[in-house]
């Protein structure tokens, strides 16, 4: 299965809303779509699991949605600390766990 | 607070075996899956494999012929061995905790360790 994220880079101002897309080459169970945030020089951090559930400590500005082959991460009211790479990940299809190539979010 | 820390050589010679250890603190190894990932500019984030706390392993088909993940005798460690490395195996390697009973996501990650394959 191939996960394609778009856009490759997103440049927005603080306070704006960001929508990041993850498209799968075949249907993925919503239970098995995860989003991670990776700030520069850091490890990935669990952000959203099972498509729409926020991980512990993640502010409610972050939300996830989608089904089938189309999934979206939305970040409302952007803050400077949101500047990072964002990755979607699927579980289940070969090779069991795979990632999208990431979206770079820049805060102007 | 659960923390993971990778350790091992930062430089490995081509055709040799890459060996890394992950030390878990703040949690028992029991009741979880434990995972290895890697990240490089060329290949992005890649899952290498998981090990169940009882020892059952699940490997990516991309690495199955040369990967071994094991539980150490020490109850707070697990390890990765990747054989016959090439320059393409140069990456930052992360250990992580996979959720249980289905390791569909990694909820805790180590900081990562950079490994270069070069003579």
What's the structural blueprint in terms of helices and strands?
The complex is a heterodimer of chains A (108) and B (119).
Chain A: E1 3-6, E2 9-12, E3 18-24, E4 33-38, E5 45-49, E6 53-54, E7 62-67, E8 70-75, E9 84-91, E10 97-99, E11 103-107
Parallel strand pairs in A: 2-11
Antiparallel strand pairs in A: 1-3, 3-8, 4-5, 4-9, 5-6, 7-8, 9-10, 9-11
Chain B: E1 3-7, E2 11-12, E3 18-25, E4 33-40, E5 44-52, E6 57-59, E7 67-71, E8 77-82, E9 91-98, E10 106-109, E11 113-117
Parallel strand pairs in B: 2-11
Antiparallel strand pairs in B: 1-3, 3-8, 4-5, 4-9, 5-6, 7-8, 9-10, 9-11
What structural class do you assign from the helix and strand content of chain A? mainly beta
Shape type of chain B: globular
Largest sheet of chain B at a glance? 7 strands, mixed
Global structural class of chain B = mainly beta
Helix share bin of chain A: under 10%
Strand segment count of chain A: 11
Rg of chain A (CA only): 13 Å
SSE run of chain A: EEEEEEEEEEE
Tally of helical runs of chain A? 0
The end-to-end span of chain A amounts to: 34 Å
The SSE string of chain B, one letter per element, is EEEEEEEEEEE
| Terminus-to-terminus distance of chain B | 39 Å
Determine the fraction of residues in helical runs of chain B and give it as a percent range.
under 10%
């Amino acid at each position: 299965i191939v996960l394609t994220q778009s856009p490759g880079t997103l440049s927005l101002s603080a306070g704006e809303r960001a929508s990041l897309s993850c498209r799968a080459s075949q249907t993925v169970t919503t239970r098995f779509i995860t989003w991670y945030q990776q700030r520069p020089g850091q490890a990935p951090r669990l952000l959203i699991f099972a498509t729409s559930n926020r991980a512990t400590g993640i502010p409610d500005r972050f939300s996830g949605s989608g089904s089938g082959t189309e999934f979206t991460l939305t970040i409302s009211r952007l803050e400077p600390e949101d500047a990072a790479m964002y990755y979607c990940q699927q579980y289940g299809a070969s090779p069991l766990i795979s990632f999208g190539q990431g979206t770079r979010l820049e805060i102007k | 607070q659960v923390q993971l820390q990778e350790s091992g050589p930062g430089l490995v010679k081509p055709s040799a075996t890459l060996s890394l250890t992950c030390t878990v603190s703040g949690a028992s190894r029991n009741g979880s899956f434990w995972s290895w990932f890697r990240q490089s500019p060329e290949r992005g984030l890649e899952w290498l494999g998981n090990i169940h706390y009882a020892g059952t392993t699940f490997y990516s088909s991309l690495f199955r012929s040369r990967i071994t993940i094991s539980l150490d005798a020490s109850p707070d460690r697990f390890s990765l061995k990747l054989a016959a490395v090439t320059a393409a195996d140069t990456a930052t390697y992360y250990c992580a905790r996979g959720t249980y009973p289905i390791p569909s996501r990694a909820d805790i990650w180590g900081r990562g360790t950079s490994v270069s394959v070069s003579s």
